[in-house]
Fold these 2 entries.
Entry 1:
Amino acid sequence: MTIEIRALREGELDAADRVYRLAFGTLLGLPDPTRYRGDAELIRNRVRAYPDGAFVAVSDGEILGVSLANNLGSLGVLGPVAVHPKHWHGGIARRLLEPTVEVFSRWRNRMAGLFTFPDAGHLRLYQGFGFWPRYLVPVMTKPVAPATEAREEADEDAAAGAGDAAARQALAAECHTLAATIYPGLDLRREIEMIEAPERGGVVVVRDGATLAGFAICHCGKGSEGGAQTGYLKFALVRSGAEAPQYFSRLLAAAEGFARRRGAAQLMAGVSAGRHRAHRQLVEMGFRTQLQGVAMHRPWDEAYDRPEIYALDDWR
């Protein structure tokens, strides 16, 4: 079988999405693997955000695998990487990774990271490209509580999204400045742009007076990375310091309120165990682990995985 590794083309999004769902659904043992992540749309959103980081393995016009890279400024994120189950253990993933990993050099990312399941084969694959495991990463969920008068008052503590283009740009700039305090060059502005369409989510914020104290990029709605039933926190961060736990609690309550108003049933977030205080606070607030992976970094640098950093992210 002759296999070509090349950039993904616009007309191949559906086929790449099918391979992605089938691969991960099979890995997780779902009764219908093609229903992995339901109506959430990850491949299309990731390719739309970073089209120069998308690659496929093709044979006789059939998509056998897909590999994506994401550019967050000083941080590059690898994934998802998926191969059709009937072609597992055939070396396709390794071939896909070769051009994908090269993208991080072109983007001049200071560090690259990924989320994977702590399986010996997965670890060995990524170690071959210079990635080494650091901390466990639980992906956690919490049921969205029904509305009450007290919760509605808490919801008003934060604003979701922004108004016109100028207001959105100003908010993105504020978020950019805050993100740089935990990792110089970390840039979430493209991630924020990706959910400008209100039906796909919003940016939830908390303020200390006029100053931004925290923000959460929340996907929620059909066509988003969360889907219609999930408020999915792609990234969230609050200002470090003595008041960080209070800001974090306010931000999560506001994100839950946002998800509630959208009709979502659950709130979902990933957190590195290296950010121990944030992880522990999630548990205390009722979040429970649904699946667990491990973060791998290249080089083996902590990035912002420090106990005092109240940040959430999901590199799946």
Entry 2:
Amino acid sequence: MPEKIVKSFAIIILNYNTFDDTVCCIESIRKYTTNDVYKIYIVDNNSLDKSGDKLAQKYEKDDEISVIISDVNLGFSGGNNIGIKSALNDGFEYVYLLNSDIILLNDAFANMQKALEDNETAAVVGPSIYSPDNKYVQYARKGITLATYLSSQRSVETICPSLNKKLRYYSYSPDEDFVFDGMVSGCCFGMSAAFIKTAECMDDKVFMYYEEDILAHLLKKYGKKAMIASQAQVVHNEGSSTKKSSTDRLLFTRFYRWSSVLYVLKKYANVNGFVCKLISLRNITIWGLLSLRSKKYSEKFVAFIKENKRVLK
């Protein structure tokens, strides 16, 4: 029988002040990954704690790991694009994006590769994801629309608490592979190089949040699907890359979620520009009210207005 051809893949880990997490992630990859035709690209997103330099020093003699240090923080998509470009230039056929706080529980890449290659309609694959307390946290989410955005607002959730979940997420069995129109969790997923080149899918005009929705709309545009490979298993220690106080983290989240969603709604969900401006005005008004009682919100008020204007151009 002819020797089985093993497809090559790149693993991109985005590091931001997470030296220990990144090292643990790499150790789990090496513990379980049996395919020897792969390379790890660590992209340091201008870490403030110099963890990028520490990683470069730790792996400087390791041919299987390349550490790339960005002199500016480019956000999720921009940082990953640096690694993607290097991986494609090196000729890899598949690219996997991992948060630094992902830990493999088995040979997840082999399982994801098999699932992806066995399904011609899928261009994106994600694993079964568990929280540190062993709760299943992977989701199959539909691309955002105006209806799903509105259903997520607190006023609507108060009246119809289950509406957003019904509109936004699929129900499926975690014990079986699931193929669907939409997108898996962005903390760990893989794409074929062919799809990346066709769709130019990591839109760096969004600094953070809603990257999965962009991919969901691009998959639909190009007639492809996402899938969850049930046998691939990882743990996600969520939030370690944005360790802030509860107040600072909420402000950070609101700043980028409230502005990024406008860009995605307008460009990818084809929501009318006037409607997007109304949503922006509402959010700016709420931010202004929050500024009256919080100095931190007040300090970011002008920047928030500028970010709203930028994404709506």
